[in-house]
Protein backbone atom coordinates (compact mmCIF):
# COMPACT_ATOMS: atom_id res chain seq x y z
CA UNK A 1 0.00 0.00 0.00
CA UNK A 2 2.60 2.54 1.09
CA UNK A 3 0.08 5.08 2.46
CA UNK A 4 -2.74 4.05 4.80
CA UNK A 5 -5.25 4.07 1.98
CA UNK A 6 -2.88 3.30 -0.90
CA UNK A 7 -3.82 5.26 -4.00
CA UNK A 8 -7.20 6.09 -2.39
CA UNK A 9 -8.87 4.42 -5.39
CA UNK A 10 -11.11 1.34 -5.29
CA UNK A 11 -11.19 -0.95 -8.32
CA UNK A 12 -14.75 -0.56 -9.57
CA UNK A 13 -17.28 -2.27 -7.30
CA UNK A 14 -14.79 -4.89 -6.05
CA UNK A 15 -13.89 -3.18 -2.79
CA UNK A 16 -10.20 -3.77 -3.62
CA UNK A 17 -8.08 -0.79 -2.69
CA UNK A 18 -5.33 -0.07 -5.22
CA UNK A 19 -1.79 0.45 -3.97
CA UNK A 20 0.49 3.38 -4.69
CA UNK A 21 3.83 1.61 -5.05
CA UNK A 22 4.53 3.52 -8.26
CA UNK A 23 6.05 6.26 -6.10
CA UNK A 24 9.03 3.93 -5.61
CA UNK A 25 10.18 4.51 -9.19
CA UNK A 26 13.18 6.75 -9.82
CA UNK A 27 13.23 9.15 -12.76
CA UNK A 28 17.00 9.66 -12.76
CA UNK A 29 18.55 8.21 -15.96
CA UNK A 30 20.67 5.16 -15.21
CA UNK A 31 19.27 4.55 -11.71
CA UNK A 32 18.72 0.79 -11.10
CA UNK A 33 15.07 1.51 -10.23
CA UNK A 34 14.46 3.92 -13.15
CA UNK A 35 10.94 4.01 -14.55
CA UNK A 36 11.18 2.28 -17.93
CA UNK A 37 9.20 -0.16 -20.08
CA UNK A 38 9.50 -3.77 -18.91
CA UNK A 39 10.88 -2.79 -15.49
CA UNK A 40 9.36 -3.93 -12.22
CA UNK A 41 9.34 -1.46 -9.38
CA UNK A 42 11.53 -2.25 -6.39
CA UNK A 43 9.32 -2.49 -3.35
CA UNK A 44 9.70 -3.39 0.26
CA UNK A 45 6.89 -5.89 0.75
CA UNK A 46 8.76 -8.98 1.90
CA UNK A 47 7.09 -11.14 4.54
CA UNK A 48 9.59 -14.01 4.88
CA UNK A 49 8.86 -17.67 5.55
CA UNK A 50 11.56 -20.10 6.65
CA UNK A 51 11.01 -23.79 5.98
CA UNK A 52 12.46 -26.66 7.97
CA UNK A 53 12.18 -30.15 6.45
CA UNK A 54 9.85 -28.70 3.82
CA UNK A 55 7.37 -27.33 6.37
CA UNK A 56 6.86 -23.78 7.65
CA UNK A 57 9.12 -23.09 10.61
CA UNK A 58 9.20 -19.29 10.97
CA UNK A 59 6.92 -16.64 9.46
CA UNK A 60 7.40 -12.97 10.17
CA UNK A 61 7.08 -9.51 8.76
CA UNK A 62 6.94 -5.81 9.45
CA UNK A 63 5.88 -2.49 8.01
CA UNK A 64 8.74 -0.06 7.68
CA UNK A 65 9.61 0.78 4.07
CA UNK A 66 13.33 0.59 3.29
CA UNK A 67 14.24 -0.72 6.73
CA UNK A 68 12.17 -3.91 6.34
CA UNK A 69 14.83 -5.98 4.62
CA UNK A 70 17.48 -4.91 7.13
CA UNK A 71 15.29 -5.61 10.17
CA UNK A 72 14.02 -8.94 8.82
CA UNK A 73 17.67 -9.93 8.32
CA UNK A 74 18.58 -8.94 11.87
CA UNK A 75 15.68 -10.86 13.41
CA UNK A 76 16.14 -14.09 11.44
CA UNK A 77 19.89 -13.99 12.10
CA UNK A 78 19.17 -13.61 15.83
CA UNK A 79 16.96 -16.71 15.79
CA UNK A 80 18.85 -19.01 13.42
CA UNK A 81 22.46 -18.07 14.15
CA UNK A 82 22.30 -16.93 17.77
CA UNK A 83 19.49 -19.16 19.12
CA UNK A 84 17.20 -16.39 20.38
CA UNK A 85 13.49 -17.09 20.74
CA UNK A 86 11.07 -14.90 18.74
CA UNK A 87 10.46 -12.39 21.53
CA UNK A 88 14.15 -11.99 22.30
CA UNK A 89 14.86 -11.51 18.59
CA UNK A 90 12.30 -8.73 18.09
CA UNK A 91 13.51 -6.93 21.23
CA UNK A 92 17.17 -6.83 20.16
CA UNK A 93 18.83 -3.46 19.62
CA UNK A 94 18.41 -2.37 15.97
CA UNK A 95 20.53 -0.63 13.39
CA UNK A 96 19.67 0.77 9.97
CA UNK A 97 21.92 1.95 7.15
CA UNK A 98 20.76 4.54 4.60
CA UNK A 99 22.59 6.28 1.76
CA UNK A 100 21.70 9.30 -0.38
CA UNK A 101 19.54 8.52 -3.41
CA UNK A 102 18.41 5.12 -2.14
CA UNK A 103 15.16 5.94 -0.34
CA UNK A 104 12.23 4.16 -1.93
CA UNK A 105 9.70 6.97 -1.59
CA UNK A 106 9.81 10.00 -3.83
CA UNK A 107 11.71 12.35 -3.72
CA UNK A 108 14.19 9.54 -2.89
CA UNK A 109 16.24 11.65 -0.53
CA UNK A 110 18.07 10.02 2.33
CA UNK A 111 20.85 11.02 4.64
CA UNK A 112 24.13 9.18 4.57
CA UNK A 113 23.98 7.68 8.03
CA UNK A 114 23.88 4.64 10.22
CA UNK A 115 21.28 4.71 12.99
CA UNK A 116 21.74 2.66 16.14
CA UNK A 117 19.48 2.21 19.12
CA UNK A 118 21.33 3.36 22.23
CA UNK A 119 21.36 -0.16 23.67
CA UNK A 120 24.40 -0.89 21.51
CA UNK A 121 27.63 -0.51 23.48
CA UNK A 122 29.15 2.98 23.28
CA UNK A 123 32.39 1.52 21.90
CA UNK A 124 30.45 0.10 18.92
CA UNK A 125 29.23 3.58 17.89
CA UNK A 126 32.72 5.03 18.51
CA UNK A 127 34.36 2.38 16.31
CA UNK A 128 31.83 2.96 13.52
CA UNK A 129 32.49 6.71 13.64
CA UNK A 130 36.23 6.08 13.55
CA UNK A 131 35.69 4.03 10.39
CA UNK A 132 33.99 7.01 8.75
CA UNK A 133 30.30 6.34 9.37
CA UNK A 134 27.92 9.13 10.27
CA UNK A 135 26.21 7.56 13.31
CA UNK A 136 22.92 8.79 14.73
CA UNK A 137 21.85 7.36 18.07
CA UNK A 138 18.19 6.62 18.80
CA UNK A 139 16.34 5.84 22.01
CA UNK A 140 16.29 2.29 23.38
CA UNK A 141 13.25 1.18 21.35
CA UNK A 142 13.12 3.92 18.70
CA UNK A 143 14.56 1.89 15.83
CA UNK A 144 12.65 1.21 12.64
CA UNK A 145 9.88 -1.28 11.95
CA UNK A 146 7.54 -3.29 14.12
CA UNK A 147 8.11 -6.97 13.47
CA UNK A 148 5.92 -9.89 14.53
CA UNK A 149 7.11 -13.50 14.46
CA UNK A 150 5.57 -16.97 14.65
CA UNK A 151 7.82 -20.02 15.00
CA UNK A 152 6.66 -23.64 15.10
CA UNK A 153 8.67 -26.02 17.26
CA UNK A 154 7.98 -29.41 15.66
CA UNK A 155 9.84 -31.31 18.39
CA UNK A 156 7.37 -30.16 21.02
CA UNK A 157 4.44 -29.47 18.74
CA UNK A 158 3.95 -25.89 19.90
CA UNK A 159 4.14 -22.36 18.51
CA UNK A 160 6.23 -19.49 19.81
CA UNK A 161 5.44 -15.87 19.07
CA UNK A 162 7.16 -12.52 19.37
CA UNK A 163 5.62 -9.07 19.09
CA UNK A 164 7.70 -5.92 18.76
CA UNK A 165 7.48 -3.51 21.70
CA UNK A 166 8.15 -0.60 19.31
CA UNK A 167 4.41 -0.48 18.50
CA UNK A 168 1.23 -1.85 19.99
CA UNK A 169 0.86 -5.58 19.52
CA UNK A 170 0.58 -8.88 21.32
CA UNK A 171 2.36 -12.21 20.93
CA UNK A 172 0.01 -15.15 21.29
CA UNK A 173 0.72 -18.77 20.48
CA UNK A 174 -0.36 -22.21 21.68
List keywords for this structure.
174 residues, Glutamine Phosphoribosylpyrophosphate, subunit 1, domain 1, 2 domains, three-stranded mixed β-sheet, 21% strand
Task: Give an account of the 3D structure.
This protein is an alpha+beta fold and 174 residues long. The protein has two domains: 1-43, no CATH class; 44-163, Glutamine Phosphoribosylpyrophosphate, subunit 1, domain 1. Helix content is 17%, strand content 21%. The protein contains three helices and seven strands, in the order ββααββαβββ. The protein has helices spanning 67-80, 86-91, 122-130; strands spanning 49-52, 55-61, 95-98, 113-117, 135-138, 148-153, 158-163. The strands form two sheets. A four-stranded antiparallel β-sheet has the order 1-2-6-7. The longest helix has 14 residues, at 67-80.
